[in-house]
């Protein structure tokens, strides 16, 4: 007697992975939005490698981000960041988590547009502050009023982050829920016929 085998429906992760094709998925947003944590979990679901650009910059320069800022200033740091991201985008597909200022840099933003799909993890001030005020390794927050500095950064950067291909609200919710929303957003975005050609 022949047993009938039914095809197993692909998982959400598998469908999103197929929709990405050869493109990278690039997380953008402010410090504390959860780009590394959500990015890493999303990469697992997609079956793709994950890389955090800040970690990669520290690896290639053999200095911490804080040390790079102190030694060379923000402009030099951004130039290095642009070079590192350009290289990572060329060797995809992968999931890439970028530093808070990366997408603000026009050069870097153009590279991300060409080499991947960008996703803004957007978070409210209180959520960000709750996450970042426990650690003191953020060079841009070494000010007299770090919460105000964070709010100023939001006001400056959010209009540029809004240029990302997709936006997901980062909030106090289970990480698995946010990851599911990311995967659904990929399917939604690629299914609509975007400015990126389907692979």
User: Share of helix among residues?
Assistant: 40-55%
Q: What strand line-up does the widest sheet have? A: 2-3-1-4-5
Unreliable stretches (pLDDT < 50, length at least 5) are: 192-199
Question: Taking Cα atoms only, what radius of gyration do you get, to the nearest Å?
Answer: 18 Å
Nearest-integer average pLDDT: 88
Q: Please state the overall shape, judged from the principal axes of the Cα atoms.
A: globular
Number of helices: 8
Largest sheet features = 5 strands, parallel
Question: Helix/strand-derived class?
Answer: alpha/beta
Order of helices and strands: HEHEHHEHEHHEH
How many β-strand stretches? 5
Cα(first) to Cα(last) distance is 42 Å
Work out the strand percent: 5-15%
Secondary-structure blueprint of this entry?
Layout: H1 12-20, E1 24-28, H2 35-46, E2 50-52, H3 53-61, H4 65-90, E3 95-97, H5 106-115, E4 116-122, H6 125-132, H7 146-161, E5 166-169, H8 175-191
């Amino acid at each position: 007697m022949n047993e009938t085998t039914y095809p197993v429906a692909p998982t959400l992760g598998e469908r999103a992975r197929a929709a990405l094709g050869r493109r990278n998925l690039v997380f953008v947003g402010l410090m504390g939005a959860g780009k590394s944590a959500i990015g890493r979990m999303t990469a697992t679901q997609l079956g793709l490698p994950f890389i955090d650009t800040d970690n990669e910059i520290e690896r290639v320069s053999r200095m911490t981000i804080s040390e790079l800022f102190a030694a060379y200033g923000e402009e030099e740091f951004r130039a290095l960041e642009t070079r590192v991201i350009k290289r990572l985008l060329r060797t995809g597909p992968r999931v890439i988590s970028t530093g808070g200022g990366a997408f603000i840099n026009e050069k870097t933003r153009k590279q991300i547009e060409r080499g991947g799909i960008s996703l803004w993890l957007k978070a409210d001030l209180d959520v960000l502050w709750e996450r970042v005020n426990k650690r003191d390794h953020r060079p841009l927050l070494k000010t007299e009023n770090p919460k105000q500095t964070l709010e100023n950064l939001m006001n400056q950067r959010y209009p540029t982050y809004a240029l990302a291909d997709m936006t997901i609200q980062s909030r106090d919710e289970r990480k698995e829920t946010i990851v599911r929303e990311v995967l659904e957003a990929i399917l939604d975005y690629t299914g609509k016929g975007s400015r990126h050609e389907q692979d």
